[in-house]
Design a protein that fits this description.
alpha/beta, five-stranded mixed β-sheet, 314 residues, Arc Repressor Mutant, subunit A, 11 helices, D-Maltodextrin-Binding Protein, domain 2
Length: 314
Amino acid sequence: MREVADRAIHGAMNDLDLNLLVTLDVLLDEGSVVGAAKRLKLSASAMSRSLARLRQATGDPLLVRAGRGLVPTPRALELRGRVRQVVVEAEAVLRPVLRLDLPSLSRKFTIRSTEGFAETFGPAILSRVAVDAPHVRLSFLPKPDKDSTPLRDGSVDLETGVIGRMMGPEILALGLFRDRFVGLVRRGHRLSKGQMTPQRYAGAAHVVIERRGLRAAMVDEVLERMALARNAVVTVGGFGAAIALARGSDVVATVPEKHTSGLCEGMHRFELPVAVEEFTISLFWHPRLDADPAHKWLRKLVANVCSQVSSSTR
């Protein structure tokens, strides 16, 4: 029975021409076939045919002759307000947004990033959002991998990181800032004094981050060409844990300088004694959100904040 009903509803929807709602709205407003035809730039005969279809669809004459004019039936009077509302709402749905009303914008945005981004850039982003759009809420999620699925399925609005091979080809990107790896130790650590050499750096106790696609592995590749290797005494899954261990023990953490600066307060940072390429931290989003005014506003805000904060890091 349900299948039969579904087919009947589907058939009815196929037979329904929603353009007739606009025609009905104008006919009821004008009370004249000729007047409605002029407003819609149609011929009088075409408007008469549309009125005939409306009568058939509603089962009511809608407009009947009274002297030389037409008057609405009770059914037409009942429909007038409802039809006007539907047409106005439909036009609002299809009309491009000309101006984004940030003070009244109520929306939640989810940003996925690796450790350190929320701590480093989050405060300034929140401050700007609170001023521009006080009803907007933000959610920062951890980024354990480079899988683009969260961007595709809409569970994530924005993502930060380094462009990788696992990223979907359709994903859009905007470069935020250039970053580099630096060494990090607690205050008073023996590496905080004296000249840094590749041998001294490699021979110290290190906390190493084990995560697929992590660019910190470039440090090991450079050391390997020099017949050296980091003395890894402990491994962790992310920058946050590595920095915490370096803060509370004698291990050395190798982390992105700007990306994690919000986590490194009170610690000693030093340039690596080996040449490791800089890299670009980018902002990612799915094409379906590219033209969304609110999303465009947030992208611009994040980019501006990252530019300002990162320029003051070194």
